[in-house]
Amino acid sequence: MLPKQLRFLHPYLHATGLLLMVVGLPFSMLLMSLSQFFIGGNWILEGDYTVKWKRFRSNKIAIMLCCLFLLYLPTTLWSSNADESLKVLRINLPLLIFPFVIGSSKPLPSGWYFNLMRVFVASVVLSTVVCAAIGLPQWINGTLNDIRHISLFISHIRFALLIVLAIFLCIWMVFYQPFRLAPIERVAYILAIIWCLFFMVILQSLNGFIVLLGVGLLWLVVETKKKLSAKTSFILTALCFAAITVSALLLVQTWKSYFTPATIYNGALPERSRAGNLYRHQLDLIENGYYINSFVCETELHAGWASCSNYGLDSSDLKGHSIKTTLIRYLNSKGLSKDAEGIKQLTKTDIQNIENGIANVKYAGLWGLRMRFYQLMYEYSFYQQGGKNASGHSLLMKWEFWKTGLNILLENPIMGVGIGDVPDAFRAYYQKNNTWLTQDWWMTCHNQYLYFGVAGGIPLLILFLFFFLTPAFKIWRTSILPFKLFLGISLLAMTTEDMLTTQAGVSFVAFFYSFFAFSRFSKEEAQNAVAV
């Protein structure tokens, strides 16, 4: 316990611990961990345990949030993998630490919470700038083979959720004005919104945009009617729906052009190439309107490719895929025959693209979400034709993860397999059923709700939903808007990710749930506490 004359520092130390978390979320796993040690250590040094315990016991929201962690404990009793059980418990400690410490501590001044939100937004924006400045050049020169890897500090999926929350906070601060903003700060937040949206396009974060649009539309429909005039609300809603409609029409047109066979397939296909060698025609997998396995003459591919590249046709490209497969797909995407004549029409840039693992000319000419959409269309086409060995194709793999998780849940509906045995159960199922996934991709659910079902059966899933949603219902009317937006982000993100199986995901959920739930204040109080 600190000397009496220094006890005034405890609120500042508590705020410093929270500051470490809002900075650490987009930047550093280490800072996330230090934040918990900091606020926990300060809580212990501050003393007043009797007062804190009474405060915690009277805080039903904090108790229910702590129960989210306690839910794991019974399932360890029937888990045979003790190491994995302990790992899961360690990762999920933030679900116990943040609700307990923040819920039992004396609330900070309102202005401090708002300033922490400002720091969070600034940290996210700075992190995107650093990732763009360092990661983009590495992707351009081929050091990174996937543009989503420009997220240098945490998974691009978790990073996208932080960006979405930062965008919503900026919109809330600019247009709802919960506290006074200097004109230059308002402009800075508007620029931050534009930049973050642009960065998400670069990041090809389809999940991020789905969450952004899903939660944003719900916000427009529900909240704007309360806070904005009917005319303004109607205009914003109409603009949003118009943008979605135009985007949908463009996607439909792209889909049709991608899957509609070119006119060359209307008549009989030639049996031989110009050099007189036999073609192979297999009209199954289509890409950019051309069947990948049509007009293929492998004899000419070997000789033609050897004349223009030092990479052997049977070797791998820089992404680890077969040069032969990449070459055939690339020629096909340009509408060229897969023979000597087709290879002759490749430019030096085309050859370099193939060596770099770019399998479709569109991937080189497009960027952002449109390129991601083309990749997803290929995955879908591959799946429709019964394609196997699609490891690395996120859409197909998630479908396999979900099917596996559902089957395991149906086999263990009451008690599940135990929180420590979830990875083992998935690996055993993959092996037993001869999955097409390679062992490197033998992962778990990628769905948090399904994960709880597998771990503890349907009862555990129901309890999780109860303890996660009940606090939100209790404080819904009195909570600030960012809490509702955060809740929407979390609930939607959990449908496609195991949010509570990684440090970044657990920290995001545990911290912001506690932060927003226990920092409710009025607009007038905030205006008096925050300097312009």
Estimated radius of gyration: 27 Å
Shape: globular
The string of secondary-structure elements, in order, is: HHHHHHHHHHHHHEEHHHHHHHHHHHH
Q: What percentage of amino acids are in beta strands?
A: under 5%
Mean pLDDT: 86
The low-pLDDT segments are: 525-532
The structural class is: mainly alpha
Helix content: 55-70%
Q: How many runs of DSSP E, i.e. beta strands?
A: 2
Give the gist of this structure.
Helix content is 66%, strand content 3%.
Overview of this protein structure:
- By secondary structure, the protein is an all-alpha fold.
- The chain has a domain at 261-387.
- It has 25 helices and 2 strands.
- Strands 1-2 form a two-stranded antiparallel sheet.
- A hairpin with a 2-residue loop joins strand 1 and strand 2 (290-296).
- The longest helix has 31 residues, at 110-140.
Highlighted features:
single chain; mainly alpha; two-stranded antiparallel sheet; 25 helices; 66% helix; globular
List the helices and strands and how they pair.
Elements: H1 10-27, H2 29-46, H3 49-57, H4 60-70, H5 72-75, H6 82-91, H7 94-104, H8 110-140, H9 156-176, H10 183-202, H11 206-222, H12 224-227, H13 230-259, E1 280-287, E2 290-296, H14 298-306, H15 323-333, H16 340-344, H17 348-355, H18 361-365, H19 368-384, H20 394-411, H21 422-432, H22 448-475, H23 481-493, H24 503-517, H25 523-529
Antiparallel strand pairs: 1-2
